[in-house]
Specification:
single chain, alpha+beta, globular, disordered C terminus
């Protein structure tokens, strides 16, 4: 029988641990920014996320959908909370959109081809569902629009990374936060934001019921809209950067960490029991609040 030297075994284990490589992706993300480790506190109706370099807020004392309801209407099922969905705003996802939706929850930002417009619905259900999800979580919407695949399989410098701050529901702070984010991205990645305000990537379409509700609103205080209305009745506050595919993904990951958009425990969606194909009409399925 061989006698094993305990001191030698412990030494070998310690050396193996010291040289165990860390995942490259995790090291890269940590090196991008120190902003990920943000502390959270509550002041009045705001949640304050801050560290030594960056501060951002999200309104808490307001109407927001439930995450579970957002998931349900994305399957075409009815939501428990009223006004989570609308007949004029499609949210039901097809198979490819479902895959992109699940990936966005794990990565912290959404990747879509072009504008994600679906002609059968005359709208972009994936953008609508993801915006509702971010509203439920009180986080900005970060979307990489992949606009420029070429015939050779490469990518030109024509993608667009868009940030929409409207889910934070604090319009008085949007301009300040926009300036700080643009300065931060310029410093970190040497990429300037797009100054053309005619960008039509993100739009809000309202159905007849929503338009009538807005027309009949006697409250002239626009601030109250951000407290009481569902997100599909509120205009986006968006700004963007023209980026290469690699830049877009790097900046998307960076912003996903800054705003804590990543859902580490998010798993692949499972089709609920009893879900049937949508009716042959514009919006399909349920989700009507």
């Amino acid at each position: 029988m061989k006698v094993v030297n305990a001191t030698l075994v412990l030494s070998l284990i310690a050396n193996a641990s010291a040289f165990s490589p860390q995942p490259a992706a995790a090291m890269a993300l940590r090196s991008m920014s120190s902003l990920a480790a943000a502390t959270t506190s509550k002041e009045n109706d705001k949640t304050i996320h801050s560290d030594s370099e960056f501060v951002w807020h999200a309104r808490q004392d307001c109407w927001r959908p439930d995450v579970r309801d957002v998931e349900k209407i994305s399957w075409g099922m009815p939501a428990k909370k009223k006004r989570t969905g609308s007949r004029g705003v499609p949210h039901r996802l097809n198979e490819e959109e479902r895959r992109q939706f699940d990936q966005a929850r794990r990565k912290g930002f959404l990747e879509v081809t072009g504008s994600s417009w679906r002609s059968q619905r005359r709208d972009a259900p994936l953008l609508n569902s993801y915006r509702s999800l971010m509203d439920a979580r009180g986080r900005p919407v970060i979307v990489l629009h992949k606009l420029s695949p070429n015939a050779s399989g490469g990518v030109d410098n024509g993608d667009r990374l868009v940030v929409d701050l409207s889910p934070l529901r604090l319009p008085d702070e949007f301009e300040k936060l926009e300036r700080e984010l643009k300065d931060r991205i310029l410093a970190e990645f040497d990429v300037e934001s797009v100054t053309d305000e005619s960008d039509e990537v993100d739009t809000v379409e309202m159905d007849d019921d929503t338009e009538s509700l807005l027309d009949n609103n006697t409250d002239d205080d626009g601030e109250n809209d951000w407290e009481t209305r569902p997100i599909y009745q509120l205009s986006p506050y968006s700004f963007s950067w023209e980026v290469s595919r690699q830049q877009g993904k790097q900046i998307g990951k960076f912003l996903g960490l800054v705003f804590n958009n990543i859902e580490e425990k998010a798993t692949k969606s499972k089709k609920p029991k009893g879900v049937k194909p949508g009716k042959s009409r514009r919006h399909g399925g349920y989700g009507i609040g």
